[in-house]
Design goal:
By secondary structure, the protein is α+β, with helices and mostly antiparallel strands. The chain contains six helices and seven strands. The strands form two sheets. A five-stranded mixed sheet has the order 2-4-5-7-6, with helices on one face. Strands 1-3 form a two-stranded antiparallel sheet. It is globular and about 40 Å long.
């Protein structure tokens, strides 16, 4: 109970920091470079789950953003895609960036368990909300990701089909 309360308090403190504005300056970064750093961080998880990561950053190779937030977004999106993989197939994660109406967008698409959006869609980005019985699920990652994105004036949405996977779209 104490550990759970401590985790919740730390997440809420981080959310408050995000909502009061970014603490670091923005810089122009390559999506590919951020991905490579993230892959190095979780390489054991990628290999042990036989995950395939396919990318296309051709249309929008860079973004000007807060480095700490962007690294956190990549880490949360990739670890969730692997954590909630289907037992029937190896995880395939597709990441694509593009421009739409002058804004940079980033898609994270997986072939995992999917989420029942009719049942859980309104709670998807809530604190301590989990939708699968996974031992590592804490319901913190998507909450923090949404706060980091919205704190910088962006938006995150999700489309999902149970048994097929989920696509998250981030608008910077």
């Amino acid at each position: 109970v104490v550990n759970n309360m401590n985790t919740t308090m730390n997440v809420l403190v981080e959310a408050l920091k995000v909502n009061s504005g970014p603490t670091e300056e923005q810089e122009t970064m390559s999506f590919q470079n951020i991905l490579e750093k993230t892959k190095a961080t979780i390489s054991n998880k990628i290999e042990s789950n036989e995950a395939t990561i396919l990318t296309n950053f051709t249309d929008a190779p860079t973004v000007t953003y807060n480095r700490m937030y962007l690294e956190s977004i990549f880490l949360n999106m990739l670890t969730n895609a692997i954590r909630y993989k289907s037992e029937k197939r190896a995880p395939v994660i597709r990441i694509k960036s593009f421009l739409e109406q002058g804004k940079t967008k980033l898609l994270f698409e997986d072939n995992g368990l999917g989420i029942n959006m009719e049942r859980h869609g309104d709670k998807l980005f809530g604190l301590n909300k989990t939708f699968h019985r996974h031992p590592d699920s804490k319901g913190v990652g998507l909450f923090m990701t949404r706060n980091q994105i919205e704190g910088m004036g962006g938006e995150i949405t999700a489309v999902s089909t149970v048994g097929e996977g989920t696509t998250f779209t981030i608008t910077f």
